[in-house]
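Ticket opened by: R.M.
Priority: normal
Category: complex prediction / small molecule

The reporter submitted a protein together with guanosine-5'-monophosphate and asked that the result be attached to this ticket for the collaborator who will pick it up next week. Submitted input follows.
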Amino acid sequence: MNKVIIFSAPSGSGKTTLVKHSLEVFNDLQFSISCTTRQPRGNEIHAVDYHFLSPDEFRQKISENAFVEFEEVYTDRYYGTLKSEVEKIWKQGKVVIFDVDVKGGISLKKYFGEKALSIFIEPPSIEELERRLILRNTDDAETIKIRVEKAEEELSYAKEFDRIVINTDLDEAKKEIESLIQNFIEETRS
Ligand code: 5GP
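Result attached by the on-call engineer:
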């Protein structure tokens, strides 16, 4: 059966690190490259980390009904998952892995139903999340403030996910996720 794994979390919870780790451990997984209208950060590469689009290009794809889901995650910052991306990965016989915001994660779970395992990564606390965002040094103070406020709201949706992993210790979180994915992939085969 074609399957997908959804990772959602407030930004700064360690979600992207855990997604990258999962991709390193499991050859059967393939990352779904989202579209976004935000600017590339640091050493991000077009068509590897994201398909970086202009707002007009993004709106064009909305009108073509090309997205499984899309969100205006922050004002004027769109993010979306392409249907064609999912189909391409399934054709390769692989399991799709998504790194999306909390609303996107809930939409994807609704869309894929039993085909999906949805995992919510929770930070140990809001204070720790803020500390991590500051240490990451990729966002200015205003952006961090917005992300922290959004995180408080997002945490209330954790219960809508199939599994919650609290990322207090990164190595333990990695192990927990490895076993969740292992079980899910095995179910896929049976
Ligand atoms: P960032 O700008 O830090 O890369 O991402 C901001 C947020 O947008 C993160 O929570 C990320 O997971 C989320 N995001 C990335 N791609 C998608 C997508 O295709 N759909 C949705 N709904 N959110 C996404």
